[in-house]
Amino acid sequence: HADLALYQSKGSGRNVVHFFNPHLKQKASFELQLEEDLRQALQQDSGLTLFYQPIIDLRSGALSKLEALVRWHHPQHGLLTPERFIAIAEANGFIDQLDNWVLRRACIDLNSLDHMGYPGLKIAVNCSALNLANDQLPGRIEQLLNSTRCPAHCLELEVTESALLSNINRAIGLLENIRALGVSLSIDDFGTGYSSLAYLRRLPLDTLKVDRSFIQDVAHSSQDREIVHAIIAMAHALHLKVVAEGVETAEQLAFLQERDCDQVQGYLFSKPVPLEEIVARFPPHYRPLERVAARS
Ligand code: C2E
Ligand code: MG
Ligand code: MG
Ligand code: MG
């Protein structure tokens, strides 16, 4: 049994793991193969793709942004979500390449969206913690915006709290340079890291995204309702827009509207889907909020 073998190996030293536990060895070579495949996918620009999830504005009822969420069509394992491969790229020193690929793709898609009649629609792209330690990031983004002729104000970068903690002063400098390009910034999964309100104030942010774990139980937990309410009030006091992540039910939506949340994202509106499907289901000038409200 794999769990048992793992348990035993913990007490008996590292070398023994490989000798006694064929499961772990198998896993190691599986991960190695995946790493190799991912490098190749990046090099050959084959298999990686972006899915998009709508972010809806609660005041206008319109589509406000799309969050780009990377997917990998693996030749043997099928469609893989980021949990399966982001860590591999991070651990092996090519997350910058991956996030660069995502940024380029997002800029290209922004241009297509503009041509299809979605002027001003923004795309939000996730940025790995590791890339925020790379001083070349602002320059790279600038270059990318120039070469794709993509307007900076259509791009938003999502960073997590953990990304900022390791070297806060450096991260602030980097983010300021990125924001100076005209790119917006949001803090992702807010509330899950060791958020310090002191530094939140110092970051050049536009948007705060409340983590899904706080939204999940607002219908049943008065404590969670109070937490979300407090986060929204605090964010507004700092002049930040608030996006609620993981909105799945009409009750959650109603609560967020009542508490003056700015935008929502979640399965209630759509899962992350290919761009074609966004275009088919969310045509320009469509008001997804009215449709969802009518349904419930
Ligand atoms: P995230 O940025 O917080 O993205 C939201 C995640 O929650 C997505 O998972 C999305 O599919 C999921 N989600 C959205 N709405 C709902 C909902 O209503 N209910 C539930 N249960 N889940 C919902 P996904 O696509 O698997 O991405 C996971 C994480 O991987 C992202 O979390 C982000 O941190 C990371 N990631 C995604 N794309 C990239 C990328 O291009 N670069 C980097 N560095 N990280 C990425
Ligand atoms: Mg995100
Ligand atoms: Mg998030
Ligand atoms: Mg998340």
Task: Explain this structure.
This is cyclic-guanylate-specific phosphodiesterase. It is found in: Cell inner membrane. The N and C termini lie far apart (48 Å). 51% of the residues lie in helices and 19% in strands. The chain is an alpha/beta fold and 296 residues long. The N terminus is likely disordered. It has an 8-stranded mixed barrel, surrounded by 4 helices. Helix 1 runs antiparallel to helix 2. Bound molecules: ligand C2E and magnesium ion (3 copies). One magnesium ion binds next to loops.
Beta percentage is: 15-25%
Q: Provide a count of the helices.
A: 14
Number of strands: 10
What small molecules does the structure contain? Answer: ligand C2E, magnesium ion
Please give the order of strands in the largest beta sheet. 1-2-4-5-6-7-8-9
Tell me, rounded to a whole number, the average pLDDT: 90
Radius of gyration: 21 Å
Gap between N and C termini, in Å?
48 Å
Structural class: alpha/beta
Poorly predicted ranges (pLDDT <50, ≥5 residues)?
1-18
What's the overall geometry?
Answer: globular
**Helix and strand run:** HHHEEEHHEHEHHEHEHHEHEEHH
- Helix content bin: 40-55%
Main sheet overview: 8 strands, mixed, barrel
Organism: Ectopseudomonas alcaliphila
Protein name: cyclic-guanylate-specific phosphodiesterase
Subcellular location: Cell inner membrane
Domain EAL: 31-286
